[in-house]
Design goal:
Length: 422
C-alpha cells in the first residue's frame, strides 16, 4: 500500500458497510464504491502526480461526497443557476457533458441510428453521469469527437463554463482568469491549451463534490437508477421556468430553427408550418417530472428540490441559500460574492438583471422580459398547449394583450413546493 490515505479508504468503505457488501458484484463490473480512492491504488499509482494527490491533497472532505444534478431544460435559466454551484471551491462542475453522448449517437451511421432507441440513449446518459460522479473523466473519451489522443482533447463542450477545468491543477495559467466574472467561451482553451482528461480527473478527486448541469434528460423518472445507486448521494435540483418565457428565449437564441415563430410573432398570423411539438414536449416533460417529484416517491426521498427560475431571479440570495441547504453544503463566500456581483439585490424587479454571460445574447435578459417580446396570439397558443404545466407550477394565464404587457400585474403565483417532511 503506497498511499497514506489508507485510513480514509477504510473509513469510507466501513461507513458504506452493508451497501458495500451488497454491491460487491456490481463493483466487479463497475470498479467500486470507493472508485476515486481505489483509483489512486490501481490504475495511476505509479504516476507521481497521482501519488502526490493521494498523499497530500486528499483532504478530509467537509461531508460525504455530494453528487448534484442540475436538471433543467433549454433556456430555463440553467446557466445562471449552474454558476451558483460552479463558484463553490469544493465543487467540480461540468456543464452539459451529455452533449457529447448525443452528438456521438446522432452522428453515427444510419444503421446504428435505426437500432438505437430512447432507452439506449438514456442508458448511455446515465452511464456517463455515473462515471463523472466518480471522477472518471476518461469515460468521456467514448463520446468526444474527434477522439482524444493520449487523453487530451480540444473538443470538450463548453469547457470555459467550468471553473475547475480552467484553473489549477488542470490549467496552471487559469487561476485569476477563472475567477474573473466575464469569460467568453474561448478564453479558457486559448489560455490553457487542450484539456488533459487525466488532470481533470485529478482535479475532480481533489474537490469534494461533483455538480453536473444537463438539459438532455427528459424526465426525472429517467434518473431513478442513479438515485438508487448506493455509490452515489444524488441531489436533484429540478429547475423549471414559465414555458412562455422559455419559448421567447428560444426564439431569440435559435432564430434559424425558430424562423416560423418569428414570422408569427411579427405578423400576428400563425404560419401553417410552425412546429408546436417542441414546446409541447418541453411542457409535458416538465409537468411529468414535477408531478413525480411532488408525489414524493421513496426513491426521491431527500433527493429532489423543485426550483422556479423566477423565484431565483427575484430573490437570488434566499433561493441560493435554500439550494445550498438542500444539497447539504455551506454557501461559500465566493458564491455570495458572485450573487452580489451578478444580480442587483437592490432592484425591486429582475429587470435590473445584470448577468453578463447569461444564456441569451441579450445581456439584459430578464425573467419577465418575455412579456414584452411575445405576441399575445403566441402566448395564448402556448397557454393552451401548456395549461397543466402553468397550473401546477403556479404561472397565471393572461386573457388579453393588455394584461400580458402590464408588468405590475405579476404572473408568478406565490408557491412553496418544498419541503414539508417527506
Ligand atoms: C459527423 O459526421 C460527419 C460526416 O461523417 C463528419 O464530417 C463530422 O466531423 C462528424 N461530426 C462529429 C461531431 O463527429
Ligand atoms: C496529462 O497529465 C498526466 C498527469 O499529470 C501526465 O502524466 C500526462 O503526461 C499528461 N498528458 C499529456 C499528453 O501531456
Ligand atoms: C436602489 O434603488 C433605489 C430606488 O430605485 C435608488 O434610489 C437607489 O439609488 C438604489 N441603490 C443602489 C445602491 O443602487
Ligand atoms: C416579437 O415582435 C416584437 C414586435 O412586434 C418584437 O419587439 C419582439 O422582439 C419579437 N419577439 C421575438 C421573440 O422575436
Ligand atoms: C387543460 O386543458 C385540457 C384540454 O383543454 C383540459 O382537459 C384540462 O382540464 C386543462 N387543465 C387545467 C389544469 O386547466
Ligand atoms: C395593471 O395591473 C395592476 C395590478 O393588477 C392593476 O392595478 C392596474 O390597473 C393594471 N393597469 C392597467 C393599465 O390595466
Amino acid at each position: 500500500m503506497e498511499c497514506s490515505w489508507k485510513t480514509v479508504l477504510l473509513l469510507v468503505c466501513a461507513s458504506l458497510g452493508v451497501q458495500y457488501t451488497a454491491i460487491r458484484t456490481l463493483r466487479d463490473s463497475l470498479s467500486g464504491p470507493c472508485q476515486g480512492v481505489y483509483r489512486c491504488q490501481t490504475r495511476h499509482h505509479r504516476d507521481s502526480r497521482w501519488r502526490a494527490l493521494c498523499d497530500d491533497s486528499w483532504m478530509p472532505i467537509e461531508s460525504p461526497r455530494k453528487h448534484i444534478l442540475l436538471f433543467a431544460t433549454t433556456r430555463s435559466g440553467s446557466s445562471f443557476t449552474g454558476q451558483l454551484l460552479n463558484q463553490h471551491p469544493g465543487i467540480f462542475y461540468v456543464f452539459e457533458p451529455l452533449y457529447h453522448v448525443q452528438q456521438a449517437f446522432t452522428n453515427s451511421s444510419s444503421r446504428l441510428r435505426r437500432t438505437l432507441d430512447r432507452r439506449a440513449l438514456l442508458g448511455a446518459y446515465r452511464d456517463l453521469l455515473l462515471n463523472l460522479y466518480t471522477c472518471d473523466l476518461h469515460f468521456m473519451e467514448n463520446y468526444i469527437r474527434p477522439e482524444p489522443q493520449d487523453h487530451v482533447t480540444s473538443s470538450f463542450f463548453r469547457r470555459s463554463s467550468s471553473h475547475a477545468l480552467c484553473s489549477p491543477p488542470v490549467c496552471l495559467e487559469g487561476g485569476d482568469a477563472a475567477a474573473s466574472e466575464s469569460p467568453d467561451e474561448t478564453w479558457c482553451p486559448k489560455k490553457c491549451g487542450a484539456l488533459n482528461l487525466t488532470l481533470a480527473s485529478m482535479s475532480c478527486l481533489s474537490r469534494g463534490h461533483v455538480a453536473i448541469k444537463t438539459v438532455r434528460v427528459p424526465e426525472v423518472g429517467d434518473l431513478r437508477t442513479l438515485t438508487e445507486d448506493p455509490r452515489l448521494d444524488l441531489k436533484i435540483i429540478h429547475l423549471v421556468r414559465d414555458p412562455r418565457a422559455i419559448l421567447a428565449s428560444r426564439i431569440m437564441a435559435f432564430s434559424d430553427q425558430f424562423r416560423a415563430w418569428k414570422i408569427w410573432n411579427a405578423t400576428g398570423r400563425q404560419p401553417r408550418y410552425v412546429d408546436l411539438s417542441q414546446i409541447t414536449s418541453t411542457c409535458k416533460d416538465m409537468v411529468a417530472s414535477a408531478e413525480t417529484g411532488l408525489q414524493r416517491p421513496a426513491w426521491l426521498r431527500g433527493r429532489y428540490l423543485l426550483v422556479r427560475y423566477e423565484d431565483l431571479a427575484f430573490n437570488p440570495k434566499d433561493k441560493a441559500t435554500e439550494i445550498y441547504r438542500f444539497v447539504g453544503l455551506e454557501m461559500e463566500d465566493r458564491v455570495q460574492m458572485w450573487i452580489a456581483k451578478n444580480t442587483n439585490s437592490n432592484a425591486s424587479s429582475p429587470s435590473e438583471w445584470n448577468y453578463r454571460y447569461s444564456t441569451t445574447r441579450d445581456s439584459r435578459a430578464t425573467a419577465e422580459s418575455w412579456r414584452l417580446r411575445l405576441g399575445f396570439d403566441i402566448v395564448r397558443t402556448v397557454q393552451n398547449l401548456c395549461n397543466d404545466t402553468l397550473a401546477l407550477l403556479g404561472y397565471k394565464q393572461v386573457h388579453s394583450a393588455a394584461e400580458l404587457r402590464n408588468l405590475s400585474h405579476s404572473l408568478v403565483e406565490h408557491r412553496t413546493f418544498q419541503p414539508v417532511p417527506w
